[in-house]
Amino acid sequence: MTTMTAKPRRLLPRIAWLPFLTMAGLAVMGVFAIYSASYRGEDQPTDPFYRMQMAWVAVGLCAFLVAAIVDYRQIGKWTWVLYSICVMLLVVVLIFGVERYGSRSWLGIKGLGIQPSEFAKIGLAFALADYLSNPDRDVRSFKSVLVCLAMVGGTAMLILMQPDLGSTLVLVPMSAVMMFVAGIRLRYFVTAIAAIAIAGAVFYMNLRGYEAAAEQVHAVAKDRTAYVQQLDKMGRKFILKPYQWERVLVFLNPERDPYGWGWNLRQSLIAVGSGGFWGKGWLQGTQNVLGFLPRQVAPNDFIFSVIAEEGGFVWCLAVLVGFTVLLLSGIWTALTACDRLGRLLATGITVMLFCHIFVNMGMTVGLVPITGLPLPLLSYGGSFVVSTMVALGILQSIQARRRAH
User: How do residues 270-284 score in pLDDT, each as one tens digit?
Assistant: First the structure.
């Protein structure tokens, strides 16, 4: 009995309390923001999203503690089993997945839904870290680069087929930075940049081709419903779906379709700008409560817009400070990790979190195209909240072992 009760007492002081309390504070703020995003006035029922979020946060905290206490090197021994399960789930979701908002990304289990792509990001980070940290492997060889590209490309392709462009784009910088830190030859990155430039040129040509075709459809369509239907048929000729092309075009020209495809961005900009310094107050955001900011996206993709309108610059600054603490903690963990596996894993998780934060906040103010990436700990979503807390728990595990050694 004495031995069994002594272990938790030794593990608890190893937790870095500043990032832990920051994570908890952001999660609590997220519950209040989601409640506000679901609020429709005193005489209207409030959607139960905030209650479900509270449940997912509780599950996420349990998962965080497990990930923080268990040695990440022990998890690393099961890397390829866990990664294989993640890939298998990505295949299963394409066949049996539930379609929401035009994407088949969820697996329904007795009324609940999980999103395998969120856990696949962590699985890929573990797989890359394990492969690149093997002391018997020459990470500077061309073979190692091909293996890494196969893992990244295979995972990205399965997620893109759902389609989930936002999550796919997160895998690219996460994997690239991990490979760079591992010591991949610089000439391979130069080659990759050249390939990206060629892909960018092809993307631009497709964008202009779609824009010209969309103008022709708009000229002959009788109403907007017919216009959208024709775009859906025409979209099979291009790389992306019509709504994805429209997001890019609205990003380049916000006035292209302010009452259609550009509505979300337009209302988000109004919400963020109208918050001022102190904000309008909790449950007082007109863009949100009156439904100008679409209710199906306010609790998740545009939760930062809700916070900005009701909390103003003050709460936006608090959110930025909180995320800065988490990111700096991740960087410090990577720099001080006791082994190569921990360093690469911490690097991948930190880059993954940064991509979500930058893209989500950027799309609410028009800095990047709308991609549907949620904001860590704040946006509504069970799989994303749990996977984010698991990732932060792994960072804690790496940091605890650094202190132990």
Answer: 888 888 889 888 888
Q: How far apart are CA 358 and CA 324, in angstroms?
A: 11
Specify whether the CB–CB gap between 124 and 151 falls below 8 A.
yes
Please, which residues have CB within 8 angstroms of residue 147's CB and are 6 or more apart in sequence? 131
Which amino acid is it at 173?
Answer: P
Residue 349 DSSP SS3: helix
Within its chain, how far is the Cα of 308 from the centroid? 20
Model confidence pLDDT, tens digit, residues 163-217: 788 888 899 999 999 999 988 888 888 888 888 888 888 888 888 887 787 787 7
Structure tokens at 136: 């018997």
Alpha carbons 285 and 291: distance in angstroms, whole number: 10
CB 342 within 8 A of CB 72: yes
CA dihedral 180, 90, 370, 221 (to 10 degrees): 140
pLDDT of 353 over the 80 cut = yes
Measured CA angle at 326 (ends 323, 66), to 5 deg: 130
Spatial distance between the Cα atoms of 85 and 40, rounded to a whole number of angstroms: 41
394 has which bridge partners? none
Query: What is the CA angle 261-167-293, rounded to 5?
Result: 35
Which of 291, 356, 346, 270 has the alpha carbon at shortest distance from 319?
356
Whole-angstrom CA distances from 47 to 38, 122, 290, 296 are: 5, 31, 14, 11
The rounded distance, in Å, linking the Cα atoms of 213 and 40 is 40
Q: Which amino acid is at 246?
A: E
* Cα separation, 114 vs 97, whole angstroms: 10
Q: What is the pTM of this model?
A: 0.88
Question: What pLDDT was estimated at residue 127?
Answer: 94
Q: Find, among 87, 214, 219, the residue nearest to 154 by Cα.
A: 87
Note whether 367 and 40 are within 8 A (CB). no
The dihedral over CA atoms of 325, 14, 76, 136, expressed in degrees to the nearest 10, equals 90
- Band of residue 234 on the pLDDT scale cut at 50, 70, 90: low
Q: Please tell me the number of Cα atoms within 13 Å of 206 on its side-chain side.
A: 19
Both structure tokens of 174: 């996460």
Neighbours of 129 (CB within 10 A): 25
Secondary structure of 190-217 as H, E, C letters: HHHHHHHHHHHHHHHHHHHHHHHHHHHH
